[in-house]
Amino acid sequence: MENADELPFKVGDLAESKSFQHGYRGAWFRCKIAEIRKRKEHLEYALEYYDFPDEKLKWTKPYQVQIWVRQREKNKELMIRPHYPPIFNAKQVPDVSSIREATVVFDDAWKIGDLVDWWTTGCYWSGTIVQILSRD
To answer: What sequence ranges are listed for the domain Agenet-like (predicted)?
Structure first.
């Protein structure tokens, strides 16, 4: 599972790293790949968190197991993902010639069952829409 070909990151790439830390379990933090190494046959990334500049570099394996999960349920979870692309409503898309990276454009309203990420408390939280309170 831990194969450099599966995660095509290189030093300097922007990414997001998942946390298992209490209070932030499942949250994704914006980071930059500072270094890459192979240690004891496992790939590791040194991550620089750019929303938290005082944090030291943290070495992270791309796949990890939550330590509180029961032994029979242990599944490795992806801990590093590419950074999220900019998102625009179809009515607000900038001039195409000014877009320099992959961009998400949507022209539909959110629906129950849609998967979402939202930014709050310095990180992204993932979820599924279960109820729509208003169309605003």
So the answer is: 12-85
Q: What is the distance between the alpha carbons of residues 128 and 17, in angstroms, rounded to a whole number?
A: 20
- Domain-wise residue ranges, the chain: 13-82, 87-129
CB neighbours (10 Å) of residue 98?
6
Q: Cα 112–114–119 angle (5° rounding)? A: 115
| 89: exposed, middle or buried (Cβ count in 10 Å: 0-12, 13-18, 19+) | exposed
What lies within 8 Å, CB to CB, of 56 at 6+ separation is: none
CATH topology of domain 13-82: SH3 type barrels. (2.30.30)
Q: Residue 23, CB half-sphere, CA atoms under 13 Å: how many?
A: 2
Question: Under 8 Å CB-to-CB from 50, ≥6 apart: which residues?
Answer: 30, 31, 32
Per-residue pLDDT tens for 53-95?
A: 888 888 988 888 776 655 555 678 888 888 877 676 666 766 6
